[in-house]
Amino acid sequence: MKEEGGPVIDAVARLLHWFERNRRDLPWRRRRDLYAVWVSEVMLQQTRVETVIPYFRRFLKRFPSLRRLAAASLQDVLKAWEGLGYYSRARSLWSAARQVRANYRGRIPRGHEEFRALPGVGEYIAAAVLSIGGGLAVPVVDGNVLRVACRWRGFAGDIRRQATKKKVHRFLCGILPQDSPGRFNEALMELGALVCLPRNPRCPACPLRGDCFAFGHSRTGSLPRKGRRRPVPLHRVALAAIVRNGRIYIQQRPERGHLGGLWELPGGKCRAGEKPQDAVGRECREELGAELDVLAKLAEVRHAYSHFRVQLHVFMCRPRSGRIRTPRPHAWIKADELEKYPFPAANHKFMKELMDFIATTRRTAYGRRRTVLETPGKIKGSQRERRREGKVEKRS
User: Fold this and answer.
1) Which residue(s) pair with 299 in the sheet?
2) Catalytic site residue 41?
Protein backbone atom coordinates (compact mmCIF):
# COMPACT_ATOMS: atom_id res chain seq x y z
CA MET A 1 0.00 0.00 0.00
CA LYS A 2 1.72 3.14 -1.23
CA GLU A 3 -0.17 6.37 -0.59
CA GLU A 4 -3.53 6.13 1.14
CA GLY A 5 -3.67 5.66 4.88
CA GLY A 6 -5.98 5.73 7.90
CA PRO A 7 -9.58 4.77 7.09
CA VAL A 8 -8.70 3.41 3.65
CA ILE A 9 -6.11 1.01 5.13
CA ASP A 10 -8.71 -0.19 7.62
CA ALA A 11 -11.25 -0.60 4.82
CA VAL A 12 -8.82 -2.72 2.79
CA ALA A 13 -8.23 -4.94 5.82
CA ARG A 14 -11.99 -5.36 6.28
CA LEU A 15 -12.36 -6.17 2.58
CA LEU A 16 -9.70 -8.91 2.71
CA HIS A 17 -11.23 -10.35 5.88
CA TRP A 18 -14.67 -10.35 4.24
CA PHE A 19 -13.23 -12.12 1.18
CA GLU A 20 -11.67 -14.90 3.23
CA ARG A 21 -15.01 -15.62 4.86
CA ASN A 22 -17.34 -15.16 1.87
CA ARG A 23 -15.49 -16.04 -1.31
CA ARG A 24 -17.08 -18.62 -3.58
CA ASP A 25 -15.50 -22.04 -3.99
CA LEU A 26 -14.73 -21.79 -7.70
CA PRO A 27 -12.72 -24.43 -9.59
CA TRP A 28 -10.03 -22.00 -10.78
CA ARG A 29 -9.39 -20.98 -7.18
CA ARG A 30 -8.27 -24.52 -6.42
CA ARG A 31 -5.49 -24.24 -9.03
CA ARG A 32 -3.38 -21.13 -8.60
CA ASP A 33 -0.94 -21.77 -11.45
CA LEU A 34 -0.70 -19.20 -14.21
CA TYR A 35 -2.18 -21.48 -16.87
CA ALA A 36 -5.40 -22.26 -14.98
CA VAL A 37 -5.85 -18.63 -13.95
CA TRP A 38 -5.24 -17.52 -17.54
CA VAL A 39 -7.84 -19.91 -18.96
CA SER A 40 -10.41 -18.87 -16.36
CA GLU A 41 -9.92 -15.15 -16.91
CA VAL A 42 -10.21 -15.50 -20.68
CA MET A 43 -13.43 -17.50 -20.28
CA LEU A 44 -14.88 -15.06 -17.74
CA GLN A 45 -14.66 -12.08 -20.08
CA GLN A 46 -18.26 -10.98 -20.73
CA THR A 47 -19.52 -14.36 -19.51
CA ARG A 48 -21.27 -15.28 -16.27
CA VAL A 49 -19.46 -17.39 -13.67
CA GLU A 50 -22.11 -20.13 -13.60
CA THR A 51 -21.83 -20.48 -17.38
CA VAL A 52 -18.03 -20.72 -17.29
CA ILE A 53 -17.69 -23.37 -14.55
CA PRO A 54 -18.57 -26.49 -16.64
CA TYR A 55 -16.61 -25.19 -19.64
CA PHE A 56 -13.55 -24.55 -17.49
CA ARG A 57 -13.66 -28.05 -16.04
CA ARG A 58 -14.05 -29.71 -19.44
CA PHE A 59 -11.38 -27.52 -21.02
CA LEU A 60 -8.82 -28.26 -18.29
CA LYS A 61 -9.62 -31.96 -18.52
CA ARG A 62 -9.11 -31.88 -22.30
CA PHE A 63 -6.07 -29.54 -22.17
CA PRO A 64 -4.58 -29.88 -18.64
CA SER A 65 -1.44 -27.91 -19.46
CA LEU A 66 -0.27 -25.18 -21.77
CA ARG A 67 1.85 -27.67 -23.69
CA ARG A 68 -1.20 -29.85 -24.34
CA LEU A 69 -3.15 -26.81 -25.53
CA ALA A 70 -0.33 -25.71 -27.82
CA ALA A 71 -0.10 -29.21 -29.33
CA ALA A 72 -3.84 -29.38 -30.09
CA SER A 73 -5.43 -28.40 -33.38
CA LEU A 74 -7.44 -25.20 -33.57
CA GLN A 75 -10.53 -27.26 -34.46
CA ASP A 76 -10.19 -29.28 -31.25
CA VAL A 77 -9.91 -26.08 -29.23
CA LEU A 78 -12.92 -24.48 -30.92
CA LYS A 79 -14.95 -27.65 -30.36
CA ALA A 80 -14.10 -27.56 -26.64
CA TRP A 81 -15.11 -23.88 -26.59
CA GLU A 82 -18.33 -24.46 -28.56
CA GLY A 83 -21.32 -22.70 -27.01
CA LEU A 84 -19.28 -20.36 -24.81
CA GLY A 85 -19.23 -17.65 -27.49
CA TYR A 86 -16.68 -14.96 -28.32
CA TYR A 87 -14.59 -17.49 -30.22
CA SER A 88 -11.79 -15.01 -30.88
CA ARG A 89 -10.86 -15.61 -27.23
CA ALA A 90 -10.26 -19.30 -27.94
CA ARG A 91 -8.25 -18.60 -31.08
CA SER A 92 -6.09 -16.04 -29.29
CA LEU A 93 -5.52 -18.32 -26.30
CA TRP A 94 -4.45 -21.15 -28.61
CA SER A 95 -2.14 -18.83 -30.60
CA ALA A 96 -0.64 -17.46 -27.39
CA ALA A 97 0.00 -20.98 -26.08
CA ARG A 98 1.88 -21.82 -29.26
CA GLN A 99 3.96 -18.66 -28.95
CA VAL A 100 4.82 -19.48 -25.34
CA ARG A 101 5.89 -22.96 -26.42
CA ALA A 102 8.03 -21.58 -29.24
CA ASN A 103 9.53 -18.52 -27.54
CA TYR A 104 9.57 -19.33 -23.81
CA ARG A 105 10.07 -23.11 -23.82
CA GLY A 106 6.51 -23.64 -22.66
CA ARG A 107 6.81 -21.45 -19.56
CA ILE A 108 4.35 -18.58 -19.28
CA PRO A 109 6.32 -15.32 -18.93
CA ARG A 110 5.81 -13.55 -15.60
CA GLY A 111 6.94 -10.15 -16.80
CA HIS A 112 4.14 -7.71 -17.57
CA GLU A 113 5.51 -6.53 -20.92
CA GLU A 114 6.29 -10.04 -22.18
CA PHE A 115 2.91 -11.45 -21.15
CA ARG A 116 1.04 -8.39 -22.40
CA ALA A 117 2.56 -8.90 -25.87
CA LEU A 118 0.92 -12.33 -26.34
CA PRO A 119 -2.14 -12.64 -28.62
CA GLY A 120 -5.40 -11.73 -26.93
CA VAL A 121 -3.76 -10.42 -23.75
CA GLY A 122 -5.08 -6.96 -22.95
CA GLU A 123 -4.45 -4.86 -19.87
CA TYR A 124 -7.18 -6.56 -17.85
CA ILE A 125 -6.05 -10.13 -18.63
CA ALA A 126 -2.42 -9.27 -17.93
CA ALA A 127 -3.22 -7.67 -14.57
CA ALA A 128 -5.61 -10.41 -13.45
CA VAL A 129 -3.42 -13.37 -14.44
CA LEU A 130 -0.12 -11.97 -13.22
CA SER A 131 -1.48 -10.65 -9.92
CA ILE A 132 -3.61 -13.68 -9.03
CA GLY A 133 -1.34 -16.36 -10.44
CA GLY A 134 2.05 -14.67 -10.15
CA GLY A 135 1.80 -12.16 -7.29
CA LEU A 136 2.60 -9.12 -9.47
CA ALA A 137 1.50 -5.89 -7.76
CA VAL A 138 -0.83 -4.46 -10.42
CA PRO A 139 -4.51 -3.54 -9.93
CA VAL A 140 -7.34 -5.05 -11.95
CA VAL A 141 -10.01 -2.77 -13.39
CA ASP A 142 -13.13 -4.51 -14.69
CA GLY A 143 -16.84 -3.71 -14.53
CA ASN A 144 -17.25 -4.94 -10.97
CA VAL A 145 -14.20 -3.04 -9.73
CA LEU A 146 -15.31 0.17 -11.47
CA ARG A 147 -18.71 -0.04 -9.79
CA VAL A 148 -17.27 -0.70 -6.32
CA ALA A 149 -14.60 2.03 -6.58
CA CYS A 150 -16.95 4.70 -7.95
CA ARG A 151 -19.52 4.13 -5.22
CA TRP A 152 -16.93 3.78 -2.47
CA ARG A 153 -14.97 6.94 -3.32
CA GLY A 154 -17.72 8.92 -5.07
CA PHE A 155 -16.11 9.06 -8.52
CA ALA A 156 -18.74 10.64 -10.77
CA GLY A 157 -17.23 10.11 -14.22
CA ASP A 158 -18.77 7.94 -16.92
CA ILE A 159 -17.29 4.45 -16.45
CA ARG A 160 -17.36 3.87 -20.21
CA ARG A 161 -14.74 6.61 -20.63
CA GLN A 162 -11.02 5.98 -20.38
CA ALA A 163 -10.53 9.02 -18.12
CA THR A 164 -12.68 7.42 -15.41
CA LYS A 165 -10.96 4.06 -15.77
CA LYS A 166 -7.56 5.73 -15.42
CA LYS A 167 -8.72 7.61 -12.32
CA VAL A 168 -9.86 4.36 -10.71
CA HIS A 169 -6.61 2.68 -11.71
CA ARG A 170 -4.53 5.43 -10.08
CA PHE A 171 -6.58 5.20 -6.88
CA LEU A 172 -6.16 1.42 -6.71
CA CYS A 173 -2.41 1.69 -7.30
CA GLY A 174 -2.27 3.77 -4.13
CA ILE A 175 -4.05 1.24 -1.90
CA LEU A 176 -2.93 -2.08 -3.44
CA PRO A 177 -1.33 -4.34 -0.77
CA GLN A 178 2.12 -5.23 -2.08
CA ASP A 179 2.12 -8.57 -0.25
CA SER A 180 -1.28 -9.76 -1.50
CA PRO A 181 -2.24 -8.01 -4.76
CA GLY A 182 -4.04 -11.05 -6.15
CA ARG A 183 -6.22 -11.47 -3.08
CA PHE A 184 -7.06 -7.76 -3.11
CA ASN A 185 -8.04 -7.83 -6.78
CA GLU A 186 -10.15 -10.95 -6.31
CA ALA A 187 -11.79 -9.44 -3.23
CA LEU A 188 -12.86 -6.28 -5.07
CA MET A 189 -14.24 -8.29 -8.00
CA GLU A 190 -16.02 -10.67 -5.61
CA LEU A 191 -17.55 -7.78 -3.70
CA GLY A 192 -18.93 -6.38 -6.94
CA ALA A 193 -20.30 -9.77 -7.97
CA LEU A 194 -21.96 -10.66 -4.65
CA VAL A 195 -22.73 -7.45 -2.73
CA CYS A 196 -22.19 -4.21 -4.67
CA LEU A 197 -24.66 -5.22 -7.36
CA PRO A 198 -25.67 -2.96 -10.26
CA ARG A 199 -29.23 -2.85 -8.92
CA ASN A 200 -30.37 -3.29 -5.35
CA PRO A 201 -26.89 -3.53 -3.79
CA ARG A 202 -26.70 -5.42 -0.49
CA CYS A 203 -25.19 -2.52 1.46
CA PRO A 204 -25.78 -3.94 4.97
CA ALA A 205 -23.45 -6.85 4.07
CA CYS A 206 -20.70 -4.63 2.61
CA PRO A 207 -17.39 -4.31 4.52
CA LEU A 208 -16.83 -0.85 2.95
CA ARG A 209 -20.17 0.71 3.89
CA GLY A 210 -18.70 2.62 6.85
CA ASP A 211 -16.85 5.07 4.59
CA CYS A 212 -18.72 4.48 1.31
CA PHE A 213 -19.64 7.76 -0.38
CA ALA A 214 -22.65 6.37 -2.26
CA PHE A 215 -24.06 4.65 0.82
CA GLY A 216 -23.57 7.69 3.02
CA HIS A 217 -25.15 10.07 0.49
CA SER A 218 -27.91 7.73 -0.75
CA ARG A 219 -26.32 7.66 -4.21
CA THR A 220 -26.10 3.92 -4.88
CA GLY A 221 -28.80 4.27 -7.53
CA SER A 222 -26.96 7.02 -9.44
CA LEU A 223 -23.38 5.75 -9.12
CA PRO A 224 -21.55 4.70 -11.11
CA ARG A 225 -22.58 6.87 -14.03
CA LYS A 226 -22.84 4.96 -17.26
CA GLY A 227 -23.44 6.51 -20.68
CA ARG A 228 -26.00 5.07 -23.04
CA ARG A 229 -25.01 2.40 -25.50
CA ARG A 230 -25.70 2.79 -29.17
CA PRO A 231 -28.75 0.90 -30.44
CA VAL A 232 -27.90 -2.70 -31.37
CA PRO A 233 -28.77 -3.41 -35.03
CA LEU A 234 -30.77 -6.45 -36.11
CA HIS A 235 -29.62 -8.32 -39.24
CA ARG A 236 -31.90 -10.70 -41.12
CA VAL A 237 -29.90 -13.69 -42.39
CA ALA A 238 -31.04 -16.48 -44.71
CA LEU A 239 -29.32 -19.88 -44.46
CA ALA A 240 -29.54 -22.92 -46.73
CA ALA A 241 -29.57 -26.44 -45.31
CA ILE A 242 -28.62 -28.22 -48.55
CA VAL A 243 -29.33 -31.95 -48.41
CA ARG A 244 -28.20 -34.50 -50.98
CA ASN A 245 -28.28 -38.29 -50.59
CA GLY A 246 -28.87 -38.04 -46.86
CA ARG A 247 -25.94 -35.69 -46.30
CA ILE A 248 -25.84 -31.98 -45.58
CA TYR A 249 -23.43 -29.41 -46.95
CA ILE A 250 -21.39 -27.38 -44.42
CA GLN A 251 -18.51 -24.97 -44.87
CA GLN A 252 -15.86 -23.43 -42.65
CA ARG A 253 -15.59 -19.73 -41.90
CA PRO A 254 -12.22 -18.00 -42.46
CA GLU A 255 -10.01 -18.20 -39.37
CA ARG A 256 -9.74 -14.43 -39.15
CA GLY A 257 -12.85 -12.44 -38.33
CA HIS A 258 -16.16 -13.02 -36.59
CA LEU A 259 -16.70 -16.67 -35.58
CA GLY A 260 -13.44 -17.54 -37.34
CA GLY A 261 -12.71 -21.23 -37.87
CA LEU A 262 -16.24 -22.41 -37.04
CA TRP A 263 -18.47 -24.34 -39.43
CA GLU A 264 -21.74 -23.05 -40.78
CA LEU A 265 -24.50 -23.40 -43.37
CA PRO A 266 -24.14 -21.24 -46.49
CA GLY A 267 -26.14 -18.04 -46.79
CA GLY A 268 -25.95 -14.40 -45.88
CA LYS A 269 -27.71 -11.15 -45.04
CA CYS A 270 -30.99 -10.20 -46.65
CA ARG A 271 -30.95 -6.99 -48.62
CA ALA A 272 -33.38 -4.20 -47.79
CA GLY A 273 -36.89 -5.32 -48.79
CA GLU A 274 -35.68 -8.77 -49.88
CA LYS A 275 -37.62 -11.83 -48.78
CA PRO A 276 -35.51 -14.44 -46.94
CA GLN A 277 -36.42 -17.23 -49.38
CA ASP A 278 -35.20 -15.04 -52.25
CA ALA A 279 -32.06 -14.08 -50.34
CA VAL A 280 -31.05 -17.69 -49.71
CA GLY A 281 -31.20 -18.47 -53.45
CA ARG A 282 -29.24 -15.36 -54.38
CA GLU A 283 -26.59 -15.89 -51.71
CA CYS A 284 -26.00 -19.50 -52.77
CA ARG A 285 -25.73 -18.53 -56.44
CA GLU A 286 -23.14 -15.89 -55.54
CA GLU A 287 -21.34 -17.94 -52.91
CA LEU A 288 -21.51 -21.47 -54.32
CA GLY A 289 -22.30 -21.02 -58.01
CA ALA A 290 -25.29 -23.35 -57.70
CA GLU A 291 -29.05 -23.10 -58.22
CA LEU A 292 -31.19 -24.49 -55.43
CA ASP A 293 -34.75 -25.67 -54.98
CA VAL A 294 -36.07 -24.21 -51.74
CA LEU A 295 -38.26 -26.94 -50.26
CA ALA A 296 -39.52 -25.40 -47.04
CA LYS A 297 -38.64 -23.21 -44.12
CA LEU A 298 -37.04 -25.28 -41.38
CA ALA A 299 -36.73 -22.74 -38.57
CA GLU A 300 -36.51 -19.11 -37.58
CA VAL A 301 -34.34 -18.21 -34.60
CA ARG A 302 -32.92 -15.09 -32.99
CA HIS A 303 -29.52 -14.70 -31.39
CA ALA A 304 -27.70 -11.78 -29.78
CA TYR A 305 -24.00 -10.97 -30.08
CA SER A 306 -22.23 -8.17 -28.25
CA HIS A 307 -22.72 -5.52 -30.95
CA PHE A 308 -25.58 -6.82 -33.09
CA ARG A 309 -28.47 -9.27 -33.22
CA VAL A 310 -29.41 -11.75 -35.93
CA GLN A 311 -32.67 -13.26 -37.07
CA LEU A 312 -31.86 -16.50 -38.87
CA HIS A 313 -34.24 -17.89 -41.49
CA VAL A 314 -33.24 -21.48 -42.25
CA PHE A 315 -34.50 -23.21 -45.39
CA MET A 316 -34.31 -26.84 -46.47
CA CYS A 317 -32.88 -26.93 -49.97
CA ARG A 318 -31.63 -29.34 -52.60
CA PRO A 319 -29.28 -28.70 -55.53
CA ARG A 320 -31.05 -28.10 -58.82
CA SER A 321 -28.20 -27.39 -61.21
CA GLY A 322 -24.53 -26.58 -61.14
CA ARG A 323 -21.79 -28.03 -58.98
CA ILE A 324 -21.02 -26.35 -55.70
CA ARG A 325 -17.79 -24.43 -56.11
CA THR A 326 -16.17 -22.66 -53.21
CA PRO A 327 -12.57 -22.03 -52.14
CA ARG A 328 -13.53 -22.59 -48.51
CA PRO A 329 -13.01 -25.90 -46.72
CA HIS A 330 -16.32 -27.74 -46.92
CA ALA A 331 -17.87 -31.16 -46.41
CA TRP A 332 -20.96 -33.28 -47.03
CA ILE A 333 -21.71 -34.98 -43.74
CA LYS A 334 -24.29 -37.27 -42.15
CA ALA A 335 -26.58 -36.08 -39.40
CA ASP A 336 -24.68 -37.95 -36.70
CA GLU A 337 -21.45 -36.23 -37.78
CA LEU A 338 -22.70 -32.72 -37.06
CA GLU A 339 -21.61 -32.95 -33.43
CA LYS A 340 -18.00 -33.48 -34.50
CA TYR A 341 -17.77 -29.95 -35.95
CA PRO A 342 -17.76 -26.69 -33.97
CA PHE A 343 -20.73 -24.49 -34.93
CA PRO A 344 -21.77 -21.01 -33.70
CA ALA A 345 -24.20 -21.02 -30.79
CA ALA A 346 -26.98 -19.61 -32.97
CA ASN A 347 -26.84 -22.72 -35.18
CA HIS A 348 -27.49 -25.00 -32.22
CA LYS A 349 -30.92 -23.42 -31.84
CA PHE A 350 -32.11 -25.20 -34.99
CA MET A 351 -29.75 -28.20 -34.98
CA LYS A 352 -32.33 -30.66 -33.64
CA GLU A 353 -34.82 -29.79 -36.41
CA LEU A 354 -32.05 -30.16 -38.96
CA MET A 355 -30.96 -33.56 -37.67
CA ASP A 356 -34.57 -34.76 -37.57
CA PHE A 357 -35.04 -33.71 -41.18
CA ILE A 358 -31.95 -35.53 -42.42
CA ALA A 359 -32.82 -38.64 -40.43
CA THR A 360 -36.36 -38.85 -41.84
CA THR A 361 -35.54 -38.15 -45.51
CA ARG A 362 -34.76 -41.71 -46.53
CA ARG A 363 -34.98 -43.50 -49.84
CA THR A 364 -38.25 -45.12 -50.83
CA ALA A 365 -38.53 -48.61 -52.21
CA TYR A 366 -38.30 -47.09 -55.68
CA GLY A 367 -35.02 -45.31 -54.98
CA ARG A 368 -36.56 -41.85 -54.82
CA ARG A 369 -36.04 -39.52 -51.89
CA ARG A 370 -39.00 -38.11 -50.01
CA THR A 371 -38.72 -34.35 -49.89
CA VAL A 372 -42.35 -33.15 -49.84
CA LEU A 373 -42.82 -30.98 -46.77
CA GLU A 374 -46.14 -29.94 -45.22
CA THR A 375 -44.66 -27.55 -42.65
CA PRO A 376 -41.14 -26.86 -41.38
CA GLY A 377 -39.85 -29.86 -39.51
CA LYS A 378 -42.61 -32.20 -40.78
CA ILE A 379 -42.01 -34.61 -43.64
CA LYS A 380 -44.76 -36.20 -45.69
CA GLY A 381 -44.01 -39.55 -47.29
CA SER A 382 -45.66 -41.26 -50.22
CA GLN A 383 -49.29 -42.36 -49.79
CA ARG A 384 -48.28 -45.99 -50.48
CA GLU A 385 -45.83 -45.93 -47.53
CA ARG A 386 -48.28 -44.18 -45.23
CA ARG A 387 -50.98 -46.73 -46.10
CA ARG A 388 -48.50 -49.50 -45.29
CA GLU A 389 -48.03 -47.92 -41.86
CA GLY A 390 -51.78 -47.78 -41.30
CA LYS A 391 -52.01 -43.98 -41.49
CA VAL A 392 -54.21 -43.79 -44.65
CA GLU A 393 -57.34 -45.79 -45.39
CA LYS A 394 -57.32 -47.47 -48.81
CA ARG A 395 -59.90 -45.99 -51.15
CA SER A 396 -62.74 -48.30 -52.16
Assistant:
1) 314
2) yes
Residues 11 and 93 in one domain: yes
Separation of first and last alpha carbons in the chain: 95
Give the CATH number of the domain where residue 102 resides.
Answer: 1.10.340.30
The secondary structure element, H or E, covering residue 111 is: none
Residue 9 has pLDDT above 90, yes or no: no
Establish if 258 belongs to a structural domain.
yes
Residue 114 in any domain: the answer is yes
Count of domains observed in the chain: 2
Distances (CA, A) of 220 to 209, 212, 216, 227: 11, 10, 9, 16
Residue 291 and residue 178 in one domain: no
pLDDT digit string (tens) for 208-228? 999 999 999 999 999 999 988
Q: Classify 386 in phi/psi space as left (phi over 0), alpha (psi -120 to 50) or beta.
A: alpha
Q: What is the DSSP letter of 222?
A: T
Domain-ending residue, one of 216, 251, 286: 216
What is the per-residue pLDDT for 361?
Answer: 65
Between helix 181-194 and helix 143-153 the angle, nearest 10°, is 80
| Catalytic residue from among 3, 20, 41, 353 | 41
Give the pLDDT confidence of 143-156 residue by residue, as tens digits: 999 999 999 999 99
Across residues 68-81, what is the average pLDDT?
A: 97
pLDDT class of 394 with cuts at 50, 70, 90: very low
User: pLDDT of 84-97, one tens digit each?
Assistant: 988 999 999 999 99
DSSP 385: H
Residue 385: band (very low, low, confident or very high) from pLDDT cuts 50, 70, 90: very low
Q: 293 and 186 share a domain?
A: no
Residue ranges of alpha helices (H) inside the chain are 7-22, 34-44, 49-62, 66-71, 74-81, 87-103, 112-116, 123-134, 143-153, 162-175, 181-194, 213-216, 276-288, 345-348, 351-360, 383-388
Shared-domain flag, residues 147 and 197: yes
Show which of 170, 188, 216 is a domain's final residue.
Answer: 216
Residue 4's pLDDT is what? Answer: 55
pLDDT at 283 over 60: yes
Enclosing domain of residue 323 = 234-388
Beta bridge partner(s), residue 297: 315
